[in-house]
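Morning F.,

Quick status update on the modeling queue. The single chain you submitted on Monday has been processed. Sequence for confirmation:
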Amino acid sequence: MARACARHILLKTKNEALLIKQQLANGADFAKLAKKHSTCPSAKKGGDLGEFKPGVMLKAFDQVVFKKALLTVHGPIKTKFGYHLIETIYRS
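Structure tokens below.
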């Protein structure tokens, strides 16, 4: 069974997500931005979601984690929770 480890920053608006993504592109620290801006409980862990299997997260989230490039910030990805910036750390 496939598994992946990812971290994310959950934001209320697409604009907010785009601003944070730009800060990341300019070298800002992902974990620090997650702690400061993410609305997800994972924020206190720097956005770390740990390891999980396909089907645990929402489909749009899984599509990024299990199919897109590793160690790249993807998004904003819209779900019912808001807008995610997602970075997949590894897949096995």
